[in-house]
Specification:
The structure is a homodimer of 102-residue chains.
Chain A (H helix, E strand, L loop, with lengths): L5 E6 L17 H14 L6 E6 L11 E4 L3 E3 L6 H11 L10
Parallel strand pairs in A: 1-2
Antiparallel strand pairs in A: 1-3, 3-4
Chain lengths: 102, 102
């Protein structure tokens, strides 16, 4: 299988038991995940860049939390408006967005 | 913050809208995620190794799917019994388990 060049994980506070509770999901993290998916499609990066929603990363006070692998960059307090910046500078420009890193 | 040396992502079919539907969660993937957490605790690897549950990776026919970053190793058809092998050989021994890779 083809591995994505960048794999973006967005905490949407999904619990293993199927419920969705926690901090990130109250702070618009579902919209953050959806914006990443839209940006990937708009930039025709499907396959090369993947977004996956996750359960809690244990950093709720910094939520919404976004982690990008394989580079292992952790972002906090990410808003839907920040997504375009992350896509532009980090995903397409290979320069992680310092101001959002935790 | 401290970044984990290995970050294990387990699909538990969590949807962004809070429901849990799909293939992996019907195939014991919640038990796979819990076994990883238990193994991490038993081996005193908290902090160094993190497990996070996720939504769908789009490879349902190979589920339950487990992805380990930063090395980018993808495993399929993972059972709770396979978790000890992955922990022993891959996480502690740095040798990904070829027979489970997809």
């Amino acid at each position: 299988m083809n591995r994505p060049k960048h794999h973006i994980f967005v905490c949407t506070s999904s619990r293993i038991n199927g419920t969705q509770r926690g901090f990130c999901c109250t702070k618009d993290s579902a919209a953050v995940a959806r914006r990443f998916q839209e940006e990937i499609e708009e930039r025709a990066l499907e396959g090369e860049v993947t977004v996956t929603n996750t359960g809690c990363f244990g950093l709720c006070e910094k939520g919404p939390v976004v982690v990008v692998y394989p580079e292992g960059v952790w972002y906090g307090n990410v808003t839907p408006e920040d997504v375009e910046t992350i896509m532009e500078q980090h995903i397409e420009g290979d320069e992680p967005v310092q101001s959002l890193m935790i």
